[in-house]
Structure formats: structure tokens, C-alpha cells
Amino acid sequence: FQLIARATIDDVLYFALVPADDEECEEYVILRVTEDGDDLVLESIDDDDEFEKAEDYFNDLFFNEVDYDE
Fold first, then answer.
1. pTM, two decimal places
2. For the residues of 17-67, what is the DSSP string, one character each?
């Protein structure tokens, strides 16, 4: 996977990742990042509310259209 963005939301770090071998991919994966000593551990997000909060942030970051007329 290739890291395309990171975000800290409510003091929790999240990574947005895409498959490294698929440059045309329009989908991405969101994982929670925790620390285990000096190592970073990537974890799936099981809580729906937590996932939606992270998903909303990354969707706004990647897909939000800017209205330059305003």
C-alpha cells in the first residue's frame, strides 16, 4: 500500500492508503495507527461512528470541490 494522506482526529492518527500497484484506483483504505514501542501498528476501525468521522474527513480532503466564485 501507498500512504496518500494522514490525519489526526480526536487525538487519534489515521492513514488513508491505496494499493501500491494500482495507479488508477479511486478507492482507498482507512486504518487507525497506534504505537507499539517504536513500531507503528495499523488497525482496522470496527466502530461505525469512528470510521464515519475519519471517512468524512478524508472524503472532504480528496473529493471536496472548491467553488472559486464565492
1. 0.83
2. EE-TT-TT----EEEEEEEETTEEEEE----HHHHHHHHHHHHHHHHPPP-
> Which secondary-structure segment (H or E) carries 4?
strand 2-9
Q: Which amino acid makes up residue 19? A: P
Residue 42 is which amino acid? Answer: L
Measured between alpha carbons, how far is 64 from 44 in angstroms, rounded to an integer? 25
Q: According to the model, what pLDDT value does residue 35 have?
A: 93
Please state, in angstroms and rounded to a whole number, the distance separating the CA atoms of residues 16 and 4: 6
How large is the average pLDDT for residues 19-29?
Answer: 80
Output DSSP code: residue 10. Answer: T
**Cβ contacts of 61 within 8 Å, gap of 6 or more:** 5, 7
Task: Specify the 3-state DSSP secondary structure of 5.
Answer: strand
